[in-house]
Amino acid sequence: MLHYKIHRLPTDAPWLVFIHGAGGAIATWKYQTEAFKPFFHLLLLDLRDHGLSKDMEPAYPSYNFDIVCTDILEVIDHLKIEKANFISLSLGSAILQRLDQRRPALVDKMVMAGGVFRATLKMRVLVHASKLLNLLLPYRYIYALFSLIILPKKNHEKSRRLYRQQAKRLTQAEYMKWVGLYGEFFKVLDECFYRPLKKWSLVVMGAEDHVFFKAAHRFVAHQEKATLVVIERCGHICNIEQWQRFNVEALAFLKGKG
Fold it and tell me: The pTM is what?
């Protein structure tokens, strides 16, 4: 089973589940835990191969979104969680939407930070360049390079450094399995982009997220149940770089009616 942490309240409260992005870990949510645990039971997960979720069985030669979602659902079922709110980051937004497709009764409200919603030309170039560089360089060098491309500014440094530290836990073989996920990733994004969201959703994006922002704006524009919040002077990993603003927006949404 995936490594996870929970924070329970002594009284009845809704659940809130956190899904990090590729290369992340539970530490991705270091600025959210204290802010959210007075109001929710919290479930924080390390995805397969990430953080402390190592050497999981069954082992697979490659990954797909069903495998990733099944890992998460096993923990949720083990804890007997029947309904929960979710917060995702980056690639986690695609995982969350696939979870909502597989088990719609489970998902209440969704918060998607730095969401990835469309396979844009820029994203495709980055993914294919990554596959090419895999033949030449160890993944840690590739990850460092692409984290600098996605998070290029000085004010992005804190989130860039944290993600590089977390990514060091991945082995080369594990990294290659997650890179392979991107073949299906583009298909999943295409399926989800025009699928009407049936759950109230909040999309939080940094205004300086030059790779993913435009697609997020277009996604929300045709979703009746989604709202977009843009944080100025902020990059892709907005829950770390501008965590105070992110927490205020997310909490107001999750605690609000609707």
Answer: 0.94
